[in-house]
Amino acid sequence: MSTTAQIGVTGLAVMGRNLARNFARNGYAVALHNRTPARTRELVEEFGQEGTFVPTESAEEFVAALERPRRLVVMVKAGDPTDAVISEFAPLLEDGDVIIDGGNAHFADTRRREQELRERGIHFVGTGISGGEEGALHGPSIMPGGSKESYASLGPMLERIAAQADDGAPCVTHVGADGAGHFVKMVHNGIEYADMQLIGEAYQLLRDVGGYSPDEIAGIFRAWNTGRLDSYLIEITAEVLSHVDAATGRPFVDVVADRAEQKGTGRWTVQLALELGVPVSGIAEAVFARSLSGHTALREASAQLAGPTPQALGPTEAATFADRVEQALYASKIVSYTQGFHEIAAGSAQYDWNLDLGAIASIWRGGCIIRAAFLDRIRAAYDSRPDLPSLLADAEFAEEIAEAQDDWRAVLVAATEQGVPAPGFAAALSYYDALRADRLPAALTQGQRDFFGAHTYRRTDRDGTFHTLWGGDRTEVEA
Ligand code: 6PG
């Protein structure tokens, strides 16, 4: 086999296949490999005319087909299959070659793999790729980690195949060292869960309180999509809501089982946030809402519990209510992104990644599932003030929330009175109110901890650590 390919893709299920085609369509010669060679042959038969493919049937043949430094993209299921592929290929590689893992790996695994391979002279680039199968083919948002050196060799190719934002900038950047790319992709997915949950709550409120049909709600979402909520998820929500089930003639959304599944990246975001001590309550509520929806037996056993049955508003009030829901959705969305970016900043500090939050917002403007007009404003906020302590500290976002908050509160009052669950909206508003509170009940928590466990507390009026002798005469001693 002659050395002809500039990049190789192993693992040709739909994401790998589409990524390989994307490279080929952009003028790169692409070596192909798959555990079962039939898939490789199928790709070449079906799409061979799109560019230059070099089909190979063994690991040795695949590696030999690549120009040096070799660039191998691994597109297999995250977890053990990734380790198996690395063990198969690494012994065949040489100093300076690059293995790129494009799966949804846990960033801690990526850190481990990067270190092990670095010791063997091989670059390991864990990269987030967002945009689903269409994105992989037409331009995803790409979040590569790994060494700067590996980006120098790989970056220009990724810039060619990535989505472009409206200003023409490619949606890819060197995110940071070792696991930074997969970390950022994980938080992207956590935000994706929160966005989807908030949209779901808006839908439910429009349906139960607004009294709108799914098709009417699709129209409302389409209108919102022309404004500040303009985003891929709002756009596809309108498509899903207006779809009619062919078998029954009913709205599709009414015939789908209401049990949301998850592959785990949202859960990872929350698990890590707990470890980093970052409150991501909106993302957590989204993960919990999916989990609650799947507890069928628990839901059946609870179906008779007392509570109001929502009463739909009349048409004029419903229109006003819909405008309020838009405000609540937008304000809650700002909070979700605030929390997500806080987690990214905390991860950056913890792992010494020196992440550029503005650049991350920038590469999420196109290609990825959470792409939205709004991200350009987040980019601008961080670009003008890279040390912004929180998105809510940005004057424009703070002002928008200030304007939205009466409606946001009114929507939650309606949800509570009518018994419609809105955990995402509520968590976002509580986070906002907690941040702006003068005093929090944490003071009482400290008192309780000191009472039952002598855990000590600090005072507002002088330095030091104190304990009250609760079981004795309640004098205060310095601890
Ligand atoms: C993306 C998506 C993608 C995928 C997730 C979500 O950015 O392209 O996030 O990674 O759809 O796997 O899956 P779950 O909802 O099943 O967790």
TrEMBL record:
Residues binding NADP(+): 11-16, 34-36, 76-78, 104
Similarity remark: Belongs to the 6-phosphogluconate dehydrogenase family.
Gene3D superfamilies: 6-Phosphogluconate Dehydrogenase, domain 3, N-(1-d-carboxylethyl)-l-norvaline Dehydrogenase, domain 2, NAD(P)-binding Rossmann-like Domain
Active site: 185, 192
Keywords: Gluconate utilization, NADP, Oxidoreductase, Pentose shunt
Pathway: Carbohydrate degradation; pentose phosphate pathway; D-ribulose 5-phosphate from D-glucose 6-phosphate (oxidative stage): step 3/3
Residue intervals of the 6-phosphogluconate dehydrogenase C-terminal domain: 181-471
Subunit structure: Homodimer.
Matches recorded under PROSITE patterns: 6PGD (PS00461)
Designated name of the protein: 6-phosphogluconate dehydrogenase, decarboxylating
Functional summary from the UniProt entry: Catalyzes the oxidative decarboxylation of 6-phosphogluconate to ribulose 5-phosphate and CO(2), with concomitant reduction of NADP to NADPH.
TM regions (residue ranges): none
Residues that, per the record, bind substrate: 104, 130-132, 188-189, 193, 263, 290, 449, 455
Alphabetical GO biological process terms: D-gluconate metabolic process; pentose-phosphate shunt
E.C. designation(s): 1.1.1.44
Substrates-to-products reaction catalysed: 6-phospho-D-gluconate + NADP(+) = D-ribulose 5-phosphate + CO2 + NADPH
Enzyme class at the top of the EC tree: oxidoreductase
GO MF annotation list: NADP binding; phosphogluconate dehydrogenase (decarboxylating) activity
InterPro entries named in the record: 6-PGluconate_DH-like_C_sf, 6PGD_dom2, 6PGDH_C, 6PGDH_Gnd/GntZ, 6PGDH_NADP-bd, 6PGdom_BS, NAD(P)-bd_dom_sf, Pgluconate_DH
Alphabetized Pfam families for the sequence: 6PGD, NAD_binding_2
